[in-house]
Each structure stands twice: as structure tokens, then as C-alpha cells.
Amino acid sequence: MAKKVESNEIKNQKLEDKSLTIKIDNNLNRIDAALNNYTQLLTSLEKKLFINSVLVYIVFLIIIISFLYILFSQRNNSLENNNKQLKMTISEKNIETEKYKEIINGYKATKSKIKLLLEEFQETTSDPKKLVDDFEAMEKSFFSKVEVLFFEKKVNKLRLDLSIKFYENGKNFYLSNSYSKAIKEFNESLKYNPKNPYINEINFFMGVSYLRIKKYSVSVKYLEKAMVNNFDRKKADDILYFLGNAYEKLSNTVKAREYYKKIIEQYSNENKYWDAKKRWNDLNKR
Predict the structure, then answer these.
(1) Taking a C-beta distance cutoff of 8 angstroms, is the pair 270, 235 a contact?
(2) CA angle (209 as vertex; 220, 239 as ends), nearest 5
(3) Cα(54)–Cα(86) distance, rounded to whole angstroms?
(4) Are 286 and 256 in contact (CB under 8 A)?
(5) pTM score over 0.90
(6) Is 196 helix (H, G, I), strand (E, B) or coil?
(7) 207: which residues sit within 8 A by CB, 6+ positions away?
(8) In which region does residue 123 sit, left (phi positive, over 0), alpha (psi from -120 to 50) or beta (all else)?
(9) Number of Cβ atoms within 10 Å of the Cβ of 283
(10) What does the alpha-carbon distance between residue 158 and residue 271 come to, in Å, rounded to a whole number?
């Protein structure tokens, strides 16, 4: 009986051991599964950490490259600006150099011309008109004060002489009815001496000359100047008469009558009285 009980206990003990072994195995399997999951998780984390590290490295590289790009761009822009400024400075210096060269060349050329002009002034056969024109065309800034005084004294005298010469030529052409040539000579006379002592005669002769060549508006301009500056009463009736003619040609009969009437009322003893009266009567008949 005692052996039977012992045998049952042994069986029960084996069953318990077997059950315990099964439980242990199950627990070990669960632990293995948990370890596998943990290992996979660690592996996944390691991959993610590696990727994140790479990304961080790439971002860092991008930041460094961007910083270097900005730095070099600024440096490049600074160099370009400096290069532009340097080119501008060189260009300005070149322009300034050319300017000084022109001044020096101008000075040399003027001094050479002064020498030639001086020689021409000393020759008695030199053309006075050419001497004056050559002097007027020269750059005076390179003249010394002594040279300016010397040449201006000589040239002023030549201007007066030329003015009188052209006035006389113009008068001769006027008296020979060569009115276009007369106008040209009178203009030359005024060119060399705008304050010509014969200015009033010149205005009168030019006014009549333009009247003869049918430039009536220009004729009026010169005749009115002659009238304003006229100090010789003997010529007043001539000026008024030709003014009346010019306005009559311009179909301004009101002005024409006005000038003819002045002759009739104020210059009855002068040469143009009867001519003016005839023109006055003819205009009134229209």
C-alpha cells in the first residue's frame, strides 16, 4: 500500500515537473519573442538614428555651403565694385590726360600761329582782312598779356581801316546800281566795326538796296533804323519816301500814306516833296 502511494506521488511529481517545464518553455519562448521584438526595434532605431545623423550632416553641409556662397558672393561683388571703380578712375585719368594733351597741343599750335601771325604783321604786303580774320580765329587763352595788347592794337586799327574800305566799296556799288554787291560790302563794313561812324548812311543805303532787290521787309528794318538815328534833316525826306515805297510794296497803304504825309507836311522844300505828293494822291484814289 505504501509503495502504491509512493508511486502516485512520483507520478504526480513528474506531472508537476512536466507542467513546470512546459511553463518554463512557454516563458522562454515569450522572452525570445520579446527579445526578437526588442532587437528589431533597436535595429529600426539604429537605422533611424543613422538616417537622422546623415540628414543632420547634410543640413550642416548645406548651411556651411550657403554661408560660404554668401561670403564669396559678397567678396565677389566687392571685387566687382572695386574693379568698376578702378576702371572708372582709369577712364577719368585717361580723359584728363587727353585733355591735358589737347591743352598742350593747343598751346604749341597757338604759339606757332602767333609766330606766323607776327611775321605777317611785319610784312607790308600782307592782306589786312586775312590778318584780322586769322587773329579772330585764334584761341586767345594761350596769349600772353603783352601779345594780346600788341595784336589788339594792330588789329583794332586794321578793323577801322577795313570798315571804311568796305563802306566805300559798298557806296560805289550802290551808286552803280549793283545792289547785291553793295549789301555784301556794307555787311563786311559792319562786321569789322559795328559802331561804324557811317552807320546811318549804311542803314540807308542797305534799306534802299533791299528795296531795289524786292526784299521789302528787310528794307523797312534798315530804313527805320536810319530814320531813328538820322541827324541830317536833308536826308529825312529820302528815308521817309523810301519807307513809304517799301510799305506800299508790302500792301500796307496805311503806313505808306503816313510816311508820304510826313514829307508833304514837314519837308515841302525838299527833293522828295513832289514825288511823295504824287504817291499820296495815287493812294487816295484807290
Answers:
(1) no
(2) 50
(3) 47
(4) no
(5) no
(6) coil
(7) 219, 220, 221, 222, 223, 225, 226, 239, 242, 243, 246
(8) beta
(9) 15
(10) 38
pLDDT < 50 regions, the chain:
none
**Measured distance CA(255)–CA(257) in Å, rounded:** 5
211 within 8 A of 202, measured Cβ to Cβ? no
Contacts of 196 (CB under 8 A, 6+ apart): 163, 167, 189, 190, 202
Total length of the chain: 286
Task: Give the CATH fold of the 198-286 domain.
Answer: 1.25.40
Radius of gyration of the chain (CA): 59
Residue 91, CB-side half-sphere exposure with 13 Å CA sphere: 6
Residues contacting 281, CB < 8 A, separation 6+: none
Q: What is the pLDDT of residue 44?
A: 76
For 93-128, letters b (16+ CB in 10 Å) and e give eeeeeeeeeeeeeeeeebeebbeebeeebeeeeeeb
pLDDT recorded at residue 25: 72
Question: Letter for the amino acid at 21?
Answer: T
One-letter amino acid of 198: Y
CA distance 91 to 81: 15
Q: Which residue has the cell 567678396?
A: 75
- In this prediction, residue 83 carries a pLDDT of 74
Give, in degrees to the nearest 5, the angle at Cα 9 between 7 and 15. 105
Predicted pLDDT of residue 105: 62
Query: In Å, what is the CA distance from 59 to each residue of 42, 54, 55, 65, 236?
Result: 25, 9, 6, 10, 106
